[in-house]
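Subject: complex prediction, re-run

Hi both,

The earlier run crashed halfway through, so I resubmitted it with identical inputs.
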Amino acid sequence: MIDRLVSGRRQPTTTELGPGDDAAVVRCADGRTAVSTDMLVEGRHFRLDWSTPHDVGRKAIAQNAADIEAMGARPTAFVVAFGAPAHTPAADAAELADGMWAEAGRLGAGVVGGDLVQADSWVVSVTVLGDLAGRAPVLRSGARPGATLAVSGDLGRSAAGFRLLWDRMAGFDELRRRHLVPEPPYGQGAVAADTGAQAMTDVSDGLIADLGHLAVASQVGIDVFTEGLVSDHLALVAAAAAVGEDPWSWVLGGGEDHALVAVFPAAVPDGWRVIGRVVDGPARVLVDGASWGGAPGWQSYDSGAPLR
Amino acid sequence: MIDRLVSGRRQPTTTELGPGDDAAVVRCADGRTAVSTDMLVEGRHFRLDWSTPHDVGRKAIAQNAADIEAMGARPTAFVVAFGAPAHTPAADAAELADGMWAEAGRLGAGVVGGDLVQADSWVVSVTVLGDLAGRAPVLRSGARPGATLAVSGDLGRSAAGFRLLWDRMAGFDELRRRHLVPEPPYGQGAVAADTGAQAMTDVSDGLIADLGHLAVASQVGIDVFTEGLVSDHLALVAAAAAVGEDPWSWVLGGGEDHALVAVFPAAVPDGWRVIGRVVDGPARVLVDGASWGGAPGWQSYDSGAPLR
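This time it finished cleanly. Structure:
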């Protein structure tokens, strides 16, 4: 089975030794590697009645890659541990691996190793390595008052797609896709770092929630301007009307889009939109100068509703 | 909760950035990092009625570390994804982390990041990074006829301990401990590499099974001499008699001790025992020149017996 998952894959030049031995060997040219890990659990982070195994593979790679992007680095290699019931069709595992390779390929990265074990339900645990190429990592703690807040990538799509799937609402295919497979703005993390970003994170929990982490780490206030988010709002108005939701709750509180938010001292690079400003503390996030009354973020499928 | 797991830990100098941001940053001084991942599933790789959370943490670190040792590298950093039910006591998670730090500390390595998610039962997924310090990785594929097979560490203890636990047999505490927490021969992987080892792997599935992987990768035969394994046999005779087992089945077929087996072109370094010889192909493993009739290895708690 493992042979089937690893054979015929094309490793990037950073992979000095791929799968098949006790460990892989990955180049880290500047003498450091960024590393992050995320675990996805069936019924909590994905549903197999909504997602194909290929979707699950892409999502697992994408959300790990976004953590590396958010440091100003470029993902180079992934290792994957996959737990599944004994009766899982081999074709499903192969499709999961294909999805991982498809997404890793978009990054020029490789899947260099893994583990395959029995579990009661699907568990996909991914670790990503990243290359900072000599850059200092862009932390959450560097934001200073007066700087500009900007975003790269879209907001609110994943939350909208989740609600449409949950309500079994037809149409809005693109939004449903974006819940199943997020589309982080690959490459923009390094762009932000090279433009002097003071602080950065990816939007995994929700814009307000993740900016809250950044505000606390930097001990600053952050004021979000909704006028910078009009394009996100507009993209969601129709779907929001269809399900009776306020689109701002998705834009400001929806997670898992894995957009990047960063703080720039001056000009914002191409591919980024200004959405706010860093202000003096206390550490808090305001929206148009006032407190935001909606949910700040999202925590997987934790509503208590039965899944499968 | 995550704060409680990461606060107050002392990172090694190789950890340039520890937990708390989107990713960690780890030094890899020679421009490469070895990487490996292993997932442990409750009821399959450990039982919470046998193991304390501290034991589970130590085991998860130890078995990942052994994969890095088996390349001739030294473990530097671990990332950990932990899935557990919502009702899991915070103290259990803290104890798991303490066990991981205790074992990582024996290696001079750090736990640099992680993820904490809800799951139906405990799932512990660990990824380890390792430093080759300029050495070529020692693969499974380099064994040549005429070379000497040697082992560092003990064999059969984990399998004996498992059987004693399974049979609820009193006594033999040390063997039971060795099933719950393996003791790989830390540091000996690098020693083997520095002594010119042609090939190496760790004993995770069982001596005959793992040597089989090495024999296939190297396209050689391997002849194991039981006279080199007398000390392992002797250590298990009393426990084997108590449960009515042949101690050789544990020495030759028992997994999870995470001893290292390596092939040396000439002299064997201190800390290693000669246990056989590499011969011309076909790729197969013989014991004292003949086929071994017992089980070649072990595959977790896969007997079909109900666990919990």
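Chain B has two domains: 2-131, 148-287.

- K.
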